[in-house]
Amino acid sequence: MKTIVLPECGKDNMPAARNLRQARIYVLLGGNGSGKSLFMNEILHLNEENAYGLSAVSGGMPGVVAEPLRQLIGTLAQDDEAERFAMVKDIWEDTFPGNTIEIHDGQVRIFNRSGKDAIGLKSLSRGEKAGLYYTAATILAPKDALILVDSPTLFLHPTAVGVLWDRIERTRRDCRFVYDTNDANFATRQNRSTAIWIKDYDAAAHTWDYQVITNGDLPDEIFLQMMGSRRPVLFTEGDAAHSIDIRLYSMVFPEFTVKPLGSCDKVIESTRTMLSLRSMHHIESYGLVDRDRRSDEEVGYLRAKHILVPEVAEVENIFLAPGVVETMAIIRGKNAKKVVKAVRQEVMEKFEKMIDDQALQHTRHRMKRDVERKIDARFTCITALELHIKSLIKKLRPREVFDKLRSEFRKMLQSGNYEGVLRVFNHKPLLTGSCAPKMLGFSNSDEYINGVVAALKHGDENAERLRTEIRKLFA
Q1: CA–CA separation, 24 vs 12, rounded Å?
Q2: Which of 72, 147, 216, 308 pairs as cysteine with 191 (C-beta 3.0–4.6 A)?
C-alpha cells in the first residue's frame, strides 16, 4: 500500500497524525463548519494519483470523481468483467436479501422479491441504489486505491450498513478507506477504524486543527455533535475498545446510537441527566445495564426511568439463551434441539452446584442495598445512629432472605425453569466454560461472540430472527 499524504496540521498534533499513515481504515469526524469536507477534498488532491472518491448523492451526476451508477453497471456487464461482477453480485445480494442481479445477453437484469419480472435501476429504493453504487464503484476501483467515501451510511438502513462495508473492506483488502461520516455507530464500529477529529480550519494558512483517535472511544464533545436529530442514544456499560456491549447492542438496536460509558452507575446517571434536560435538547435517551442481582422491584424502577434491563443476569448469558443458541445452531448447520438441550443441561447442573453461593451473593446484594437505604435516615445524635446500626441485623434478617432465595432457586431447578436460572445466575466464567461454543463449531467463547455479531450484520432472515430473539430478552 502506498503512503497516504495528509493535510497540514496547524496545531501540535502533527506527530500523532504522521503515525496514522499505516492505518487502513479512517473516519473523518467534525461539526458543521469545522472544515471536514475541505479536509476530505485536500486528501483527494494530495493523493490524486491513486485516490478514488465516492458519493451516493453525486455519484449519478456529471462532473464528479466517481462514475455514475449506470456507467459502472455497464462496465460490469462486459465479458471480461465476469469475476468482478460476481463479487458485486455476492456483496449486494447479501446486503439486500431477496434481490438478485444477473447478466443476460450482455445486459444487467435486476429482480426483487416483488415479482419474477426484471426491474430497472429506477425501480430500486434509494438504499438499494446506494448499496449497488458503492459496491460496483469499490470493486472497480484501481488496485491499491485510496477510496474516499462521502456519507457511507446515507440512504442505507442501519442493518445494511455493517454488512455492506464489512464485505467491501474484506473484498478489497488491497485498498485503504477514508469515510466522511456523522454517524457515531459507524465511526466506532468494533474499534476497527482510526478516527480523525477535525476541530477547526484556518483558511488563511490552509491548515487544520485535528486530533487522531485510535481507541474507538469518541470524546463526549464530538459524540454529542454527531448524534444530531436522526437517532436516539443508548448508553451502555463497558468501553468501546474491549466490551461485548457495544459490539452486540449496536447490532441488536441499530435504530440507536450506542455510547459505552463504563460503569452501570454512570449509565444510570447519564440517562437521568439527559432526561432531566429534555427541555434543552431533542435527543431521546435510554440506558442499558446488566440485570446482575437486582430484584424485580429494582428492575421495574429502572425500566420506568428509561433504563433497559435484560431478562438475564449479565450480557454473557444472552449467548446462552435458548432462542439465541437455537438460531446460531441453524446458521451453523447444527442439530438445534441437540445443542440447546446440552447447553441447558450443563447450565442447570452448574447452577445446582453453586446454588448456595448464588443465594449468598444475592443476599449480600440485598443487604447492601437495604443498609444504604436505612442508614440514610436522619438521626438526632450518634447514640441514635449506634442503636440503629445494632438493630439492623433484626430488621434485615439476612438468613431469612438467604433461605427464601435458596428455596426459589431450588424451585427453578425442580421445574426446569431455564430462563429463570439465566435471569439470576451471575457467574462470569459461565459462558467461557460452556459447551455452547464448541457444539456450534467455535473454538472458544470469544469466537462464538464474534460469530453472533457477524451473523447479526447480515440482512437475511436468520439475522432478523437472531435480533428478535435477543430483543425478546428486553421485553
Answers
A1: 23
A2: 216
Question: Cα separation of 258 and 185, whole Å?
Answer: 6
- Name 292's Cβ contacts closer than 8 Å, sequence gap at least 6: 264, 313, 314, 365, 426
pLDDT surpasses 90 at 131: yes
Helical H segments across 178-295, by residue range: 184-188, 220-227, 244-252, 264-276
Rounded Cα gap, residues 135 and 99, in angstroms: 14
Residues contacting residue 305 through CB under 8 Å, at least 6 positions apart: 268, 271, 272, 275, 287
**Percent of the chain predicted with pLDDT > 70:** 87
- 334 pLDDT exceeds 50? yes
Report which residue type is found at 446: D
Angle value at C-alpha 471, between 468 and 475, nearest 5 degrees? 125
b (16+ CB within 10 A) / e for 39-68: bbbbbbeebeebbbbbbbeebbeeeebbbb
Q: What confidence tier does 289 reach under pLDDT thresholds 50, 70, 90?
A: very high
Give the C-alpha separation, 308 to 233, whole Å: 12
